[in-house]
Design goal:
The complex is a heterodimer of chains A (about 475) and B (about 625).
Chain A lengths: L11 H19 L5 H21 L5 E3 L4 E3 L1 H22 L2 H5 L2 H20 L3 H19 L6 H32 L4 H11 L5 H17 L8 H8 L2 H26 L7 H21 L4 H22 L2 H28 L15 H4 L1 H15 L5 H15 L3 H27 L14 H19 L2 H14 L1
Antiparallel strand pairs in A: 1-2
Helix pairs in contact in A: 1-2, 1-5, 2-3, 2-5, 3-5, 3-11, 3-14, 3-19, 5-6, 5-11, 6-7, 6-11, 7-9, 7-10, 8-11, 9-11, 10-11, 10-13, 11-13, 11-14, 12-13, 12-18, 13-14, 13-17, 13-18, 14-16, 14-17, 14-19, 14-20, 16-18, 16-19, 17-18, 17-19
Chain B lengths: L6 H16 L5 H28 L6 E12 L2 E10 H24 L6 H20 L3 H19 L6 H32 L4 H7 L5 H18 L8 H4 L5 H10 L4 H8 L1 H4 L3 H24 L3 H21 L3 H28 L17 H15 L5 H15 L5 H26 L7 H4 L7 H16 L11 H11 L14 H28 L3 H8 L1 H8 L4 H38 L5 H33 L1
Helix pairs in contact in B: 1-2, 1-4, 2-3, 2-4, 3-4, 3-10, 3-15, 3-20, 4-5, 5-6, 5-10, 6-8, 8-11, 8-13, 10-15, 11-15, 13-14, 13-18, 14-15, 14-17, 14-18, 15-16, 15-17, 15-20, 15-21, 16-18, 16-20, 17-18, 17-22, 18-22, 23-24, 25-26
The chains are: A mainly alpha (about 475), B mainly alpha (about 625).
Chain lengths: ~475, ~625
């Protein structure tokens, strides 16, 4: 805090990832013939190093760069989640990028840069750092969303995402400007001090700034009414990237939102709870109800991911220890189950035929049992069926909501997640209880890397569901350190 | 030994994994034997534990097997733990015992079905989930099983999915059960909120400390769950449709075990129910009404499985009536005897269908008495048992319910009178079916008549065993002389409450005997009427039907409840979702894209211009509108 000390350890994950990103670009240019697996392995090794570096700050919290960066349990946990998500994304992509999209080195590099942006969002304790991380992430994603350049949906998706993303960034920046105007600082600690003395409604202009920031974050985590881009973009983007956006990017949005909301906590709680309440309820209802009607599995997963953001908001609203640890547990779980689900789609798709309509999945249990079983596990977990991790994750969040007195919101959450079971199970029924149509397109050949990634995700949701307590108690230590 | 309780659910899980993963490579014989053997192993384990349990003093009969801590947050923790007390013991023995017989029967019944392995793996998975439900030591494990059995039920109803009607039935069961599960889950959250624990012992022993409205609300919410799973008013509509599943499934899931989960749950949480007179009354009245309604519908149904399905709904109503007057041990007693005779009758009905190339319309049967003798004789035993004829199993349990409905402090004369009327109706509709199916002239289609044959031994032996159980199963609890069953169970229910509150408030031994005599007379009258109408004077039913045409039509159409639900719930819901969410939020957007991509041939630029012209602005607008709404809150809120 005092002075502007350069603390390389505090930003080690970000630095490692940035260097890794540049290295991949340079390698890609210097050795254009390099085997994609080799490059993929280099990326994965880099991720492993960054992962270890992130773990460093778990026990050793540090404040660096004049309070712009805080490396603590929070940033450590989130960085690990991001890197896990990115690792699985690379796993899903290794077999695919060459045949489908070319330019795999750029693809890898962009994933790495996006991850670097995420780590910055988790460790930023200054609105400017948060914004910087957000933009690093977003710009990489704009490009990745349009990576299938021959596909009209991809072009559309990328363009839409870019326009709307830029628009949302505008809101965010304007909000930062207003808050700066009132408090004279972009440092969350100073803003927090202002909030605890004046209250969040102390000045209308401050509250306006708060609301504008909410719009910006709301876009990133795709909650109602800022969610409309998500289904189009997820549909158009390469499937591993859809998974990456639905998990890593969303988790990063929540990381930033949580940092921000913690600063907004004051003794006189007023004002923003109602707003989040309404947004959460509307997001859960809309996401789940519209998902019911989707016949395109990628769109269905997109709406499902919107709904899940609604559930997570309950934890934000609860603001208690169970809530905060619940969010992190949820995001961890969600990363595995969602990447897994998108991964199965990616696993089955060929360059000619994307495996995305419900009828594509008919009779999969007999033709591709591994994929069918994995997909069923992910669907059950997303629906919150015990003993898979999705159930535990929901349970923690919802009990946090009950504890904090948001009983009606939890009731809405329970009702909507019951509704959601209908469409998740619908896919399972297609796979296990329907016969394959004769003229259905062939599925892709076996791809070991994708299979490993899916297996890891499946194993993770089993372990997190059956033995959750160890992880939850870790995250509770984390949550207590925040309060 | 109590450390081995986990073995009970483990065996069926193993069976599920083996048959589910390797079923493709195994022969029918191996699959069938493996699936049945796993359930038998569970049964044997349960028997050993049961005998160990009886070695203990009645108050200490409780084994707990904690595997590990499932989750812990602050002061709250929930274990993966199994509980084996008198109540679980009875449930486990019924589930695995009857379940084993039904597995064996299925080997014959499903012979040659291309989904043979899938069927057995689902059946094992169901058994696993059901065992979790009854063995769990906290609400979470119970919920885990609760969801699991629902899932298996759904999968097995739609097992023969080639028929779209069957798939529809599966859907209906699923949706109706969701409504029930919602109540159950909210109830669990409330328990968590008020008690800070989900452990049965902790919650039940602290129930007295909570305000009454909390207990009442929790009990009613849990009961909503029970009405869904156990097919009571208003959520019973799924069970008759669920008969689309293979008959062994109807016997195991939709008669003997899963549908009794609601009864079990109320008995398990009885210490809460007895604190709320409101909740108990609701349970008793809903149970009684359901029993009456379903029995009247069963009179006019022409489908052999539907008659049995409505009969199941009706008998479950009896169990809820018993629970609702505080006679929990009696409810479980009827649950057990019902499992014997209803499983028997479903399997016998399956055997009839097996003989008649899957015919289910009783008007196309008749005169089967001598052609399929074993099936007939076992069906006959089942008919006597459900009608409550001495000394068959149903007599003891049903009579006990009727007596408790009158004599319990929560009972009333009306409960008894209506209950006795239902007993008469039960005897009538059941024997109407038996006489129509087995007596009189054959009305079987000529084609089918050529192939009538008795089922193989693998199917008839389970029938005979169940017939034996239906005959003597009631003798374990003879009021006043040999009330072993009640004595075994009562410590579970009396653990947290004052037993004195449950002493019969009125009525004497003489009155009890009189009541038993009355119900016997009523049952015989029902059977006699059925014989007159369906054997001796076969023109009578039509005459009566046309003389009370309005009533007959009402019953034949099942009180139009399905139509009513369709009109007031399903259609409006679909309309709203179509009109609002679908049309406004997604159709527009999808259409926009589809239009865009259809014109891709023009030029890429053209697509970009067209598809973005409308949609992106709409999206951006939504951001602005959202922001404006937030600012509206700032200014006016």
């Amino acid at each position: 805090m005092n002075g502007f000390e350069f603390d390389w350890i505090a930003i080690a994950p970000f630095l490692i990832l940035s260097v890794l990103g540049f290295a991949v670009v340079v390698l890609g240019i210097s050795f254009p013939k390099m085997y994609r697996g080799t490059l993929g392995t280099i990326v994965l090794v880099g991720f492993a190093v960054a992962f270890l570096a992130s773990l460093q700050s778990w026990d050793d919290a540090r404040l660096a760069f004049g309070g712009m960066i805080t490396a603590d349990k929070f940033s450590s946990a989130f960085s690990c989640i991001f890197i896990l998500g990115a690792t699985l994304t690379i796993g899903l992509s290794i077999n695919q990028v060459e045949e489908k999209y070319l330019l795999y080195s750029d693809y890898f590099a962009l994933v790495v840069f996006a991850t670097a942006g995420m780590t910055l969002m988790a460790s930023g304790t200054n609105l400017l750092t948060l914004f910087l991380g957000l933009e690093t992430l977003s710009i990489a994603l704009y490009v990745l969303a349009g990576f299938r350049r021959s596909n009209e949906f991809a072009l559309e998706a990328s363009f839409k995402y870019f326009l709307l993303g830029a628009f949302a960034s505008g809101f965010l920046l304007y909000g930062i400007a207003l808050i700066y105007g009132i408090t004279g600082s972009t440092d969350l600690t100073k803003i927090s001090a202002y909030v605890s003395s004046e209250g969040i409604l102390g000045s209308k202009m401050f509250f306006a700034g708060f609301l504008l920031l909410l719009v910006g974050f709301g876009f990133k985590i795709s909650v109602f009414p800022f969610h409309l881009w998500a289904p189009d973009v997820y549909q158009g983007a390469p499937t591993p990237i859809s998974a990456f956006m639905a998990t890593g990017s969303k988790a990063a949005g929540f990381a930033a939102l949580m940092r921000f909301m913690i600063a907004m906590q004051s003794t006189t709680q007023s004002g923003w709870q109602d707003i989040i309440w309404v947004i959460a309820a509307a997001t859960m209802i809309l996401g789940n109800v519209i998902a019911l009607r989707q016949s395109n599995v990628k769109r269905m997963l997109a709406y499902s991911s919107i709904a899940h953001a609604g559930y997570i908001l309950i934890g934000v609203l609860a603001g208690n220890t169970i809530g905060s640890s619940g969010i992190i547990f949820y995001l961890l779980t969600y990363t595995f189950m969602n990447i897994g689900a998108f991964g199965v789609i990616s696993y089955l798709s060929t360059a000619e035929h994307e495996f995305i309509t419900l009828s594509d999945f008919r009779g999969l249990a007999s033709s591709r049992p591994f994929a069918a079983i994995a997909m069923a596990a992910f669907m059950f977990s997303l629906a919150g069926i015990p003993p898979l991790a999705g159930f535990m994750a929901k349970f923690y969040l919802f009990s946090a909501g009950v504890k904090a007195g948001y009983v009606w919101l939890v009731i809405i959450a329970v009702v909507t997640s019951m509704i959601s079971l209908y469409y998740y199970l619908g896919l399972v029924v297609q796979m296990f209880m329907r016969d394959k149509e004769a003229d259905v397109a062939a599925t892709a050949p076996l791809q070991p890397a994708v299979m490993i990634a899916i297996s890891i995700a499946m194993l993770a949701i089993l372990i997190l569901g059956i033995f959750p307590s160890r992880w939850v108690s870790l995250f509770q230590d984390l949550a207590r350190s925040l309060m | 030994m109590q450390d081995y309780i986990w073995l009970i659910p483990f065996f069926p899980l193993l069976g599920f994994l083996i048959n589910g993963l390797l079923g493709k490579y195994l022969s029918e014989k191996v699959i069938g034997i493996l699936g049945s053997a796993m359930v038998f192993l569970s049964f044997s384990t349960a028997v050993v534990l049961f005998f160990q349990l009886t070695q203990l003093d009645p108050e200490n009969r409780l084994f707990i097997n904690t595997l590990y801590t499932w989750m812990a947050t602050g002061s709250f923790s929930a274990d993966v733990a199994f509980r084996f007390d008198a109540l679980s013991a009875v449930m486990v023995l019924v589930v695995t015992g009857v379940g084993f017989l039904i597995h064996v029967y299925s080997i014959g019944y499903m012979h040659g079905d291309r989904g043979f392995a899938r069927f057995f793996s689902f059946l094992n998975l169901f058994t696993f989930a059901m065992l979790l439900l009854v063995l769990g030591n906290n609400f979470l494990i119970m919920f885990l099983g609760w969801e699991g059995v629902g899932l298996c039920s759904y999968l097995l109803i739609g097992f023969w999915y080639e028929n779209p009607e069957y798939a529809y039935a599966g859907n209906k069961a699923f949706i109706v059960n969701r409504i029930g599960d919602f109540g159950f889950l909210i109830g669990i959250f409330m328990i968590f909120g008020y008690f800070g624990s989900l452990n049965f012992d902790t919650v039940l022993s602290a129930a007295g400390m909570q305000p009454e409205w909390v207990i009442t609300t929790i009990c009613l919410l849990l009961f909503v769950g029970a009405t869904g799973k156990s097919a009571q008013i208003p959520l019973y509509v799924w069970l008759p449709d669920a008969m689309a599943g293979p008959t062994p499934v109807s016997a195991l899931i939709h008669a003997a075990t899963m549908v009794t989960a609601g009864v079990y749950m109320i008995c398990r949480t009885s210490a809460m129910y007895v604190l709320s007179e409101v909740a108990l009354s609701v349970v008793a009245i809903i149970g009684l009404l359901t029993a009456l309604m379903a029995a009247t519908i069963a009179i006019t149904s022409k489908d052999i499985k539907k008659v049995l399905a409505y009969s199941t709904v009706s008998q479950l109503g009896y169990m809820f009536l018993a629970a609702g007057v505080g006679a929990f041990a009696t409810a479980i007693f009827h649950l057990m005897t019902h499992a014997f005779f209803k499983a028997l009758m479903f399997l016998a009905a399956g055997s009839v269908m097996h003989a008649l190339s899957n015919e289910t319309n009783i008007d196309k049967m008749g005169g089967l008495k001598n052609k399929i003798g074993t099936t007939y004789r076992t069906f006959w035993v089942g008919g006597l048992a459900i009608s409550g004829i001495l000394p068959f199993a149903g007599f003891f349990s049903k009579d006990e319910i009727l007596w408790k409905a009158f004599s319990s402090p929560f009972g009333s004369t009306v409960f008894w009178a209506v209950g006795t009327l239902i007993a008469g109706l039960t005897a009538f509709y059941m024997w109407r079916m038996i006489y129509t199916v087995f007596y009189g002239e054959s009305r079987v289609d000529k084609e089918v008549a050529l192939h009538i044959h008795e089922s193989p031994k693998v199917m008839t032996v389970p029938l005979i065993v169940l017939a034996a159980l239906s005959t003597v199963g009631g003798l374990v609890n003879i009021p006043h002389y040999f009330p072993m069953f009640e004595h075994f169970l009562d410590p579970v229910f009396m653990k947290y409450i004052n037993p004195a509150a449950f002493e019969a408030s009125h009525g004497s031994f003489g009155l009890e005997l009189t009541f038993a005599a009355i119900s016997l007379v009523v049952a015989f009258t029902g059977i006699w009427l059925a014989k007159v109408m369906y054997v001796q004077r076969r023109e009578l039913p039509d005459k009566i039907a046309s003389s009370v045409k309005g009533l007959y039509t009402l019953l034949f159409n099942k009180y139009y409840v399905d139509e009513l639900y369709d009109k007031i719930i399903v259609k409006p819901f679909v309309k709203v979702s179509d009109a609002f969410f679908y049309a406004f939020f997604d159709v527009k957007i999808i259409d926009g894209i589809v239009n865009g991509s259809a014109k891709i041939m023009d030029s890429i630029a053209g697509v970009l211009r067209r598809s973005h012209s409308g949609v992106v602005q709409f999206y951006a607008l939504s951001l602005v509108v959202g922001a404006i709404a937030l600012f509206g809150y700032l200014i006016f809120g």
